[in-house]
Amino acid sequence: MKPISLLWGLRSYCASHGCLYCYFGTVSEHREQMPTAPGVLSHLSPNDLTTADVLAFAETLHDSPVGRVFLAGGEPLLWKPIIRLIEVLKAGGLEVVVCTSGVALNRPDLREPLIELGVDAVSVSLDSADPVHNDQWRPPRRGGDGWEAVVSGISALIAARGPGPRPKVGVYSVITRRNLADIVALPELAASLGCDYAVPQPIALDPDHRLAADLSLTAEHLPELRQHFDDLYAAELPLVLPERSYASQIASAVARPTDLVPGCFGGDTLFFVQPDGTVWDCPSSLKIAATPPGRHRSIKGAKARELFPAPTGCGSDCALFSVDCVNMWPLTGFPVLAPTGPEVPRA
Ligand SMILES: C[S@@+](CC[C@H](N)C(=O)[O-])C[C@H]1O[C@@H](n2cnc3c(N)ncnc32)[C@H](O)[C@@H]1O
Ligand code: SF4
Known about the structure:
nine-stranded mixed sheet; rSAM; metal-binding; Radical SAM protein; 13 helices; S-adenosyl-L-methionine; TIM Barrel; iron-sulfur
């Protein structure tokens, strides 16, 4: 297995949902004021790469050390050339994981090609076993595209796959101070639907985000968080969860704003590509803000093997471990596929 994973935010616009905490901000706030700082995402960004630029770069991945690509967004499945892109990636021998809001999986014209092309995994975002909670924080842009449509999309994909090995199907849920019980309840729901994996991920918001006081986890939530993770691993559900150490990593990220990671995989075996083509060592806003201008690079017109040299496997020490990046551990040690880069211990 080639060692590098790319988390590729393909498109800025999300025609699917208007999640209130989304990394891309909200359309209404950015209509008033567009962010201008490097790396800050917006659903309204006018700078997304053209389809030709995306496909041209994708064609170069096959002879690079990149072995796995996570296609995210915005909403990747509602971007028309997505199936063509997956074709190119699979023809190049890459593993492909599609990260989706899940509603599009109800469409046979999108669902069937994912199976036929051998997509390796589909991670569906669903925050709560409680439809009301989910749709409050992940409101769909169209009526009828809420919790029930996501669950039916998951079920439709699992049914269409049948006993075949691919794609693995899993659920990613954003955990806030308001849905700590979903650390257990969501994987239980995922198991009942026949999913292969479940990943509870802590919300990452800037301290001055308008929802931080409502949603962010703090030290006072840690006893409950730890208890729910203990209950989750004790439940021995018939699906794969992140490494047991992930729960402690989340707790330590919540307890301390930043911390040291010796030999982090960011910039060695993991990279983040934005919709405008910019390449970062890691999606963490802290790490992006600390990136010197000389290391601002783009996939536009570039060849993957020039952007991503063979990794050292040692990474580099990073003092910016935080809730912004703790979600990268279950990405590099992706639970249902073979490991790519070396597992990096936390300090
Ligand atoms: C940005 S979305 C893109 C893919 C797709 N639209 C989706 O919702 O799955 C990728 C993942 O990031 C999560 N996410 C978005 N904003 C977040 C935040 N502020 N903190 C933690 N996770 C977040 C989403 O719930 C989703 O699981
Ligand atoms: S569906 Fe995904 S990209 Fe769209 S708003 Fe929600 S988290 Fe953001």
